[in-house]
Design goal:
This protein has eleven helices and eleven strands. With 288 residues, it is an alpha/beta fold. The strands form two sheets. The chain has a seven-stranded mixed sheet with strand order 4-3-1-2-9-10-11, with helices on both faces. The longest helix has 17 residues. It is globular, with a radius of gyration of 18 Å. It starts with 15 loop residues before the first strand and ends with a strand. The structure holds D-glutamic acid (DGL).
């Protein structure tokens, strides 16, 4: 790339805003905190409205708009829609409505799958909302129209993983059921199209077999964020340690406890925001 003449940018100290339907997007935040330790992050988990997957696309879109407006009110420099269902339902509309740049998780995951596949058969495991929006299918086809995609909606999986015991037999039964159509399809690449699924990676690997590459949208999205900050010239100074703060629309204490498992880092204070399309933007801080 040939850079702009003003390639030397002042550091941008504003935080990056991240939202999800609950705690799942913390797998995306985890990758961001590892790859961008010098940036500040504000994470909003809409646990009061979890899950988004079974909801209609219009309802998910309304919730996504409320979440983005909340983050904009916190003066973020970039918004990351760390939720496949919300990205699928609302990303273009959000981008067209807000001045703040907004990234989703679908394009980075789709691009990685297109780069990875050799037999040009890609499987997708995702929520009903994500599958019915056909966003992954469209993104893949834009990049390589010759790739065949088999999408499997997994309605039970995200709630089961969120409940806690990711190594239970019930989770294994669900993973076995949802991966079966992909095994018979014969794909060599599977997109984990829901932020919860990285937590069951070992089970997926075992049931899909060693010849199948798993695409973790969380990792791909954090690479996209890094590149975007650099190219837009809105990265913070690298010689500092950033902070991260949390808001939840559900009960803050349970967000803190369940969330730490997804983030794999401590979650201290969690603010509460009423959330939803018609609520005021102000939030209270509670928690440890
Ligand atoms: N974060 C959501 C997703 O990636 C989890 C599933 C849900 O809310 O139903 O689709």
């Amino acid at each position: 790339m040939i850079g702009r003449a003003d390639a030397e940018h002042e550091p941008d100290p504003r935080p990056i805003g991240v939202f999800d339907s609950g705690v799942g997007g913390l797998t995306v935040l985890h990758e961001c905190l590892v790859n961008l330790p010098h940036e500040d992050f504000i994470y909003l988990g809409d646990t009061g409205n979890f899950p988004y997957g079974p909801k209609g696309l219009a309802e998910v879109r309304a919730l996504a708009f409320a979440n983005a407006a909340f983050l904009v009110s916190h003066h973020v420099k970039l918004i990351v829609v760390a939720c496949n269902s919300a990205t699928a339902a609302a990303l273009p509309q959000l981008q067209a409505s807000f001045e703040t740049p907004i990234l989703g998780v679908v394009i980075p995951g789709a691009r990685a799958a297109v780069q990875e596949t050799r037999n040009r058969r890609v499987g997708l495991l995702a929520s009903e909302a994500t599958v019915s929006s056909a966003s992954y299918q469209q993104a893949i086809s834009t990049l390589d129209a010759g790739i065949e995609v088999r999408a499997v909606a997994c309605p039970r999986l995200a709630p089961l993983i969120q409940e806690g015991d990711v190594f239970s037999e019930e989770v294994e039964r669900a993973v076995r059921e949802y991966t079966a159509p992909l095994k018979s399809f014969g794909c060599d690449t599977v997109i984990l199209g829901c932020t919860h699924y990285p937590l069951v990676t070992p089970m997926l690997r075992r049931l899909l077999g060693p010849g199948v590459a798993l695409i973790n949208s969380a990792e791909e999205t954090s690479l996209e964020i890094t590149e975007t900050l650099k190219r837009k010239g809105i990265a913070n100074r690298r010689d500092r340690e950033g902070g991260y703060t949390f808001f939840s629309t559900g009960e803050p204490e349970s967000f803190r406890q369940v969330g730490a498992r997804f983030l794999q880092l401590p979650i201290r204070e969690v603010g509460h925001w009423v959330g939803g399309a018609s609520s005021p933007i102000s939030a209270t801080r509670v928690g440890a």
